[in-house]
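Hello,

I think I submitted the 1,3-dihydroxyacetonephosphate job twice by accident. Can you confirm which output corresponds to this input? Input:
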Amino acid sequence: MAGIRRIAVIGGGAWGTALALVAARAGRDVALWARDAATVDAINGARENPRFLPGITFDRGLVATTELETAMRGADAVLLVTPAQTTREVAGRIAPFCLPGAPVILAAKGIERGSGLLLSDVLREALPEAVPAALSGPSFAADVARKLPTAVTIAAGDETVADALSAALASPSFRPYASGDLIGVQVGGALKNVLAIACGAVEGRGWGASARAALTARGFVELSRLGAALGARPETLTGLSGLGDLVLTCSSEQSRNFAFGIALGKAGTAPMAQGGKLAEGVFSAQVAVDIGKRHGVELPISGAVAAVLGGSLSLDDALEALMTRPLKRES
Ligand SMILES: NC(=O)C1=CN([C@@H]2O[C@H](COP(=O)(O)OP(=O)(O)OC[C@H]3O[C@@H](n4cnc5c(N)ncnc54)[C@H](OP(=O)(O)O)[C@@H]3O)[C@@H](O)[C@H]2O)C=CC1
Ligand SMILES: O=C(CO)COP(=O)(O)O
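Support: Only one job matched these inputs. Its output is below.
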């Protein structure tokens, strides 16, 4: 496909702002849309997003706006960076301004709750003229905003589209790998959040580093099985957007999902743990288990997370249930 000159970034939170910086560093003409006027003013004026990236002054200027039509004008590609559960609504809002055939890169990590659809399928329903793509991998927004070295996967059904998007966003501090596996990239991104909550809970409850490593490894088995059942490629699941992101978020307090899990672990039950920050795994846990059931894939760890969050199981009972499952051969 032709070179990508102008990119609209939809969503002025931590990741939207960081990805707008990525696109600007790569030499693209960038417009960032946020619905919060104070955030837009701070980005345009002080080169900061104090609500979502406190303490970081950007290395370059960005153009932000609260006007969706202005942000979308002439965009050859769109980065959609609002929470997963808002994808349908926001895709519908940008639809009137989206150039037909423009790639829309999904940067959220989750599964739509009501429908059980991956976000690329949500996009196909809400904005059928767009070409769905996804960007995912081990990448904290604050690290990326600070220009720390990061590598991610960018996937699209047509690999030449993924190649073009990778070329449009690459810079010496941001290295995308192109992929044709749109499903695998999305499954990894959604599942790792659920598993990071489990690992955080282990940390918060004081169950030790050995338990956390075991959970990460067995969690990877869940992620791989679900991915395989949905048609993901093995190299995607072991790649940046699968194992890479799982390892990052299951081991760092910088992860909001892991931090949510720690709070959950300290409280022992779900309702007291909400901290106000976005933890996408909360919304993906049950729907992932439901998708697994439909495909004959058991997800015991994700199921335990869903049950604890749903209030039907305490953390201590969840651990006992996991530890006393029938013994089996490792696979
Ligand atoms: N932060 C990170 O390190 C990374 C995040 N991601 C993923 O990116 C997605 C977004 O995360 P992140 O940017 O960190 O989240 P934040 O909580 O930092 O920001 C969310 C942004 O989305 C906006 N928003 C929320 N609901 C709507 C809506 N209905 N319509 C329009 N805008 C809306 C918020 O606006 P308002 O301020 O007005 O509420 C806010 O600007 C998540 O799926 C996350 O998993 C992926 C990789 C890294
Ligand atoms: O996806 C992320 C890093 O790759 C960010 O993780 P959290 O949403 O848990 O902060």
